[in-house]
Amino acid sequence: MGSEGGAQTSGPRNPFPTVDVVVERGNGCVLLVRRTNPPLGWALPGGFIDYGEAAEAAARREVEEEAGVTVLLTDLLGVYSDPDRDPRHHTLTVVYIGRSRDPVTAGDDAAEVREFPLDSLPELAFDHARILRDYQHFKATGVLPRPTP
């Protein structure tokens, strides 16, 4: 199937699959990483799912790489796929909730790792402020976020 002007498509364009993890620290705080790569800022630990890797395995790997901790995944918060959620390209993220009490150590593309109380969060990258609002609502009510219309 050709197109006028000689341009041809090479196949479907799909969002890039990613994972993010709300890591509970047992003291009412969540773990955030300060990114060293654009977009800069504070974010939930997370990243791209590798080819052949399950989303759950990617979530555990990313938390360990960025924060130096092992995480026990406890819940699936939801899937976030707004085409504008990442300024670099269209991503689709699977967001997990997990727990870890290990001491943190910044690694991979994290300049810093810190615990933050939910009522005192820094400016967040991507759509992570929305994700954390959904998380707070879930923790308060037990109700998972509904798909956006």
What does the model show?
The chain is of the alpha+beta class and 149 residues long. The protein has a single domain, classed as Nucleoside Triphosphate Pyrophosphohydrolase. Helices cover 18% and strands 32% of the residues. The protein is built from 2 helices and 7 strands. It has helices spanning 55-67, 128-141; strands spanning 16-24, 29-35, 41-43, 46-48, 72-80, 91-99, 110-117. The strands form 2 sheets. The chain has a 4-stranded mixed beta sheet, with helices on both faces. A hairpin with a 5-residue loop joins strand 2 (29-35) and strand 3 (41-43). Mean pLDDT is 91; it is low at 1-6.
Give the helix/strand layout.
Elements: E1 16-24, E2 29-35, E3 41-43, E4 46-48, H1 55-67, E5 72-80, E6 91-99, E7 110-117, H2 128-141
Keyphrases for this structure?
alpha+beta; four-stranded mixed beta sheet; 32% strand; three-stranded antiparallel beta sheet; 7 strands; 149 residues; Nucleoside Triphosphate Pyrophosphohydrolase; disordered N terminus; single chain
Short description:
The chain has 149 residues and is an alpha+beta fold. It is built from 2 helices and 7 strands; from the N terminus they run E-E-E-E-H-E-E-E-H. It has a 4-stranded mixed sheet with strand order 4-1-6-5, sandwiched between helices. Strands 3-2-7 form a 3-stranded antiparallel sheet, with no helix packed on it.
What is the second-level CATH architecture? Answer: Alpha-Beta Complex
Instruction: Tell me the span between the first and last alpha carbons.
Output: 34 Å
Number of strands: 7
The CATH homologous superfamily is named Nucleoside Triphosphate Pyrophosphohydrolase
Number of domains: 1
Question: What is the CATH level 1 assignment?
Answer: Alpha Beta
Largest sheet: 4 strands, mixed
Helical proportion, percent range:
10-25%
Q: Examine the coordinates and then state which fold CATH places here, giving the name of the CATH topology.
A: Nucleoside Triphosphate Pyrophosphohydrolase
The low-confidence parts are 1-6
